[in-house]
C-alpha cells in the first residue's frame, strides 16, 4: 500500500525554507552588543521615569504634579516592557 502526501511542496520552496531555518538557527549566536544596546535603552526608560516621578514631587500645581508622577510611573514601567516586546517581535519577524 502506498501513501500519497497530503501536500506536495515544490523543491525550490523546500530549499528556501531550509536556508531560512539555517539562517534563523545561526542568528541565535548574535553579537552581544545588541543586548547591551537593548539594556541601555531600557535603563534610559527607567531613568526618564524616575526623573518624571521626581519632577512630580517638585511641582506646586497639583494637577501637573499628578500628571508628571503618573507619566513617570507609566514611562518607567511601560518603556522597558514595550522595548523588550517590540525587540522580540522584530527578532521573530526576521
Can you tell me about this structure?
This protein has 94 residues and is an all-alpha fold. The chain has a domain at 44-94. 79% of the residues lie in helices and 0% in strands. The chain contains three helices and no strands. Helix 2 packs antiparallel against helix 3 (62-93). The chain is elongated. 3% of the residues are buried.
Structure characteristics:
elongated, 94 residues, mainly alpha, 0% strand
Strand content: under 5%
Number of strands: 0
Total DSSP helices: 3
Radius of gyration: 24 Å
Q: Indicate the overall shape.
A: elongated
Overall average pLDDT: 88
Largest sheet: none
Find the structural class using helix and strand composition.
mainly alpha
Helix-strand sequence: HHH
Terminus-to-terminus distance: 42 Å
Helix proportion range: over 70%
Low-confidence stretches: none
Oligomer type: single chain
What's the SSE blueprint?
Elements lengths: L10 H16 L6 H26 L3 H32 L1
Explain briefly what this protein structure is.
This protein is mainly α and 94 residues long. It contains 3 helices and no strands.
